[in-house]
């Protein structure tokens, strides 16, 4: 490694800890990644969206001395900005600047996070944007909507059981005082991880630590995180909206996180089954390439928002609990039931037969190289190391490479049988005629597939099995909700 990685742990007299990830180098760009290990899981359910509004007010609400527009104008000639990301357990603020602009940029960044303006007109703007992000943004995106409905359903009755962006009704009730209270309670030294990389000058990190000691030493009380409830029987949530196709997301909770010894093996399994936005997975091959059902089909063992826009998962979405998920991209309504059956059939075959030796070696080798792509920028590199701090593990890239090198096919097949299943699932669907889709899914009637072009005899023979595959769904386990009521 050409750079020196130093992890500094500062003990405050009041026993608070500011964790600092200092990543010095020769780059003329100085990159910041400032993470507070708090998020929507810390907010009361009745105040869903409070963590989101708080972070947005810091990133888009100005400081005590400067309005937000003045900050934007000041950063424009620097070609710089500050972004905010909010998840269940983390609120992340990220930005970068050239070393020549470091003093002025850091002065703005520091004021945004430590001396916010808390103006009522900024709050109204930020809150309106948050409401519109649900009404106009999320609800108009069938695939992202379906995935968020899946996550909400899986984690219902837990602190993860509501959308991190909030609900319309909750956002409309929140006040600026609520936001200020959340900031005072949760933005503390004990929750803070300061990440910095690049050619910053000597003494800069110590100065930054001193600045952030302005925050309160400790955070407010947070209840212990409860695991998601068991799924007794497969259930379906259908979001009804005016759309031309049917989008499916399928999943269930898993206990595997990056801190688990089975993580690398399960990652290989899901990559072989369906690597995100790649054409080599089993699901992609069997559903798109051989049958032309849709644009693509993928598998995941970690939360991956905005997947239709991103090629790699963003860092700093670390969680205590994760899910196994299949993302079945939209299919034509006549093929919807068959596509669902086929996805479950392929998963079932995977569980029964495991990963072949050549597939194991190819996937393991791919992941050993692909992991380098995840940290190709300094911001992402900082983010992944911060995630490793959260999980209490070694640095993600070298530790995953080492785990992959030790991995065997038998270990992968063991975790496939241990963690994967085709029953006790949650299925989220977005469809135009929700009641008709409900009727179809609750019925054991065959769903034969017709094609516009000839298919191989092997495919047609397999289709005869797939079209009759039982879904074991009861009408009472299938709920239909209009899109305008989702996250309302």
Tell how many strands the DSSP assignment holds. Answer: 12
Shape: globular
Distance between the termini: 49 Å
- Taking all Cα atoms into account, the compactness measure Rg is 24 Å
In short:
This protein has two domains: 207 residues, Metalloenzyme, LuxS/M16 peptidase-like (Cytochrome Bc1 Complex, Chain A, domain 1); 251 residues, Metalloenzyme, LuxS/M16 peptidase-like (Cytochrome Bc1 Complex, Chain A, domain 1, 2-Layer Sandwich). 41% of the residues lie in helices and 17% in strands.
Verbal overview:
By secondary structure, the chain is α+β, with helices and mostly antiparallel strands. It folds into two domains: 207 residues, Cytochrome Bc1 Complex, Chain A, domain 1; 251 residues, Cytochrome Bc1 Complex, Chain A, domain 1 (2-Layer Sandwich). It is built from 17 helices and twelve strands. It has a six-stranded mixed β-sheet with strand order 1-2-6-3-5-4, with helices on both faces. A six-stranded mixed β-sheet has the order 9-10-8-11-7-12, with helices on both faces. A hairpin with a 4-residue loop joins strand 4 and strand 5. The termini are far apart. 47% of the residues are buried.
Descriptive keywords:
17 helices, disordered N terminus, 6-stranded mixed β-sheet, alpha+beta, Cytochrome Bc1 Complex, Chain A, domain 1, 12 strands, 488 residues
Architecture blueprint of SSEs:
Blueprint: E1 6-11, E2 17-24, E3 29-36, H1 50-60, H2 68-75, E4 83-86, E5 91-98, H3 102-114, H4 120-137, H5 142-154, H6 168-173, H7 176-186, E6 192-198, H8 204-212, E7 235-240, E8 246-254, H9 263-274, H10 282-289, E9 297-300, E10 322-331, H11 336-353, H12 357-374, H13 378-391, H14 396-406, H15 409-419, E11 426-431, H16 434-442, H17 457-466, E12 478-482
Parallel strand pairs: 2-6, 7-11, 7-12
Antiparallel strand pairs: 1-2, 3-5, 3-6, 4-5, 8-10, 8-11, 9-10
